[in-house]
Amino acid sequence: MNPIELAQTIENNYRRYLQTTFYFKDRELRESFEKALISGRLSKGPYLEATPTFKRTQTTRDLFPELLGFQPDEGFLKAVDKHLYKHQEEAIRRVNQGRNIVVATGTGSGKTEAFL
Questions:
Q1: How many domains would you assign to the chain?
Q2: Cα separation of 82 and 110, whole Å?
Q3: Which of 112, 106, 6, 111 shows the shortest CA–CA distance to 51?
């Protein structure tokens, strides 16, 4: 998918929508409206956001027995079983060592899980 072509397609579709939705009986107003539609861009962009790929590490099923020194209840492990991102594992390890932490990372990267 080419984001520039996609943005142009969206803008052209929107322009056609406006042309067919708003018909002005007054010829001068109609011509002015059509001229305004074709004279410039209807949008800015496209804007692209590059989000980093967060590195995965081990699962909580593997990490918790290592940190606790014993095998936790299977029901507990099943409830929390997931692959951790590297920053989540580091946060859990540091909290386990009695340290305070601050997790500052991107949206959708698991800050809440690190807190929990």
A1: 2
A2: 11
A3: 106
Task: Kindly state the helix (H) or strand (E) to which residue 109 belongs, with its residue range.
Answer: none
pLDDT per residue over 60-111, tens digit each?
A: 999 999 999 999 999 998 998 989 999 999 999 999 999 999 998 888 888 8
Residues 6+ apart with CB under 8 A from 56: 83, 84, 85, 86
Give the pair of three-digit tokens for residue 24.
């002005």
67 belongs to a structural domain: yes
Instruction: Give the integer Cα–Cα distance in Å for 116 and 105.
Output: 16
Q: Which residue has the tokens 């708003």?
A: 22
Please state whether the predicted TM-score (pTM) of the whole model is above 0.85. no
> What is the residue range of 110's domain?
56-115
Residues in the chain: 116
Contact 84, 63 (CB under 8 A): yes
